[in-house]
Amino acid sequence: MNPSLKRISIISALLLIAVSLCCGKLTCKEGHSGPTHESMQAVFDLKSFRPAVNLSNPTISNISFTLYAVLGVNEKTQILTTFLWMRQYWRHEFLVWDPDECDGITKISLPAAQLWSPDIIVYEFVDDDVSQACPYVYVNHTGHIRWDRMLRLVSSCNLQIFSFPFDVQNCSFTFGSYMHTIRDVRLAPALTFEEMSGNSKRYLEASGEWELVDILGETSILKFGIDQWDIITIWVVIKRRPVLYVVNLLIPSSFLMLIDIMSFYLPPHSVDRASFKMTLILGYTVFLLIMNDLLPSTANGTPIIGIYFSVCLALMVISLLETVIITNVLHHSSMKSKEVPNWVRVVVLKHIANLICYKWPEDVQPPSEPQEDKPQSSNSNSESWNIQPAIQTPATHPNTNEGAASMPELKQICQYLGDLRAHLISLQKENELTNQWCQVGYVLDFLLFRVYLLLISCYAMVIICMWCVWISQT
Questions:
Q1: Among 73, 76, 72, which residue's Cα sits nearest to residue 302?
Q2: Of the candidates 146, 104, 143, the residue with the CA atom closest to the CA atom of residue 24
Q3: Which residues are CB-contacts of 219 (< 8 A; sequence separation ≥ 6)?
């Protein structure tokens, strides 16, 4: 380019800038709708400077946003990903024109990259914005600029997951200038926080598992050393929709616990209840492994639903241990000559049975007061010995030789009968001991079943009350 022409263009541009700065208005020509390109180009050349005639006056920036979607909540990394429609206003004091002189044009669109804009950021952001950029802004004839843009905000948030899946999260978005202090840029909300909340609820009510509860906010001044920044802090309160987790986690777990409770009605003496309970514990463990991906995990704590599953698994193990104890008691009679101690009869068969209202079978009588053990075999021995004299004394028979010959056979038969009677007495005694140990096992099983039901009921009531309190507080 000719140096003289270049010099002339620079001088003309400076003159236009001077006119604009002095008059405060853009120029318009006849036959042109709106300000001329030359006058706006002079403003574009000043995009690196804050658009204020008097630099002692701060530029006021108004912001508002609409929460359109909650894209993700990562409890482990404490990150919230949201999608916002953000609107920002400020005044450009060099972009002013008279609509009467510019063919009635009151609003034009200009490229955002050619104009100065406040460096408003969200202090909690932890990742780059990958949303589609909006390259244009609307400029009013009074110099007010409106910039609508989409913002994919990845921000840090202190997520509280103890009450999962009935948790409520309160995350803050702090809007402020990165470099300009309150002497250069001041911030103010463009809409009230109630209006922001109402606009966001209309779009977020059908968005995924999260429901918007409210949007709150306040304006404040951030002090750092001798500098001060104007900031707007907005709290977004969102609540999780728990239906998915109740159906996939709580209801199956409750069904497995119900099956474990009903397994107590299996007769322990004829069915291998322990194998059934071990299979149930194995199935519950597989269920927890499959559903582990649905549970949030953080280094700060464990959600109460995780504690709930752990306690349910512990209760199943306790139920298995109870079955082992009852099985051991029921098979205790296999030990020969092992009678039920007197204190067991008093404590278990009398007091505990009366306490739990145990219903005795028809063929079994409740135990009476314990008495001193008497030798039961004395009568039988005496009776058996009473037979011996009668047999040893031979009956009068005309043929003494035949009577004498039959004596050894009679003695042998009497001995066989005595052994058979002693064996039957021992079998009867073992059967009585077996019945006594079985009744002890049944009473203990009935007692432990009631204690197990009480533990599960109290635990379920505590969990339900805690969740109800959290829900009512939200």
A1: 76
A2: 143
A3: 187, 188, 189, 230, 231, 232, 233
pLDDT digits (tens, 9 = 90+) for 423-447: 777 666 666 666 666 666 677 777 7
- CATH of 20-241 among 1.10.3720.10, 2.70.170.10, 2.60.120.1440, 3.40.50.2000: 2.70.170.10
**Number of helical H runs and strand E runs in the chain:** 11, 10
Tokens of 16: 């236009």
Name 93's Cβ contacts closer than 8 Å, sequence gap at least 6: 24, 51, 52, 53, 143
At residue 296, the 3 state secondary structure works out as: coil
Does the pTM of the predicted model rise above 0.70?
no
Bridge partners, 227 (sequence order): 224
Percent of the chain with pLDDT over 90: 16
Rounded to whole angstroms, the Cα distance separating 272 from 45 reads: 89
* pLDDT tens-digit series, residues 186-210: 999 999 999 999 999 888 766 578 8
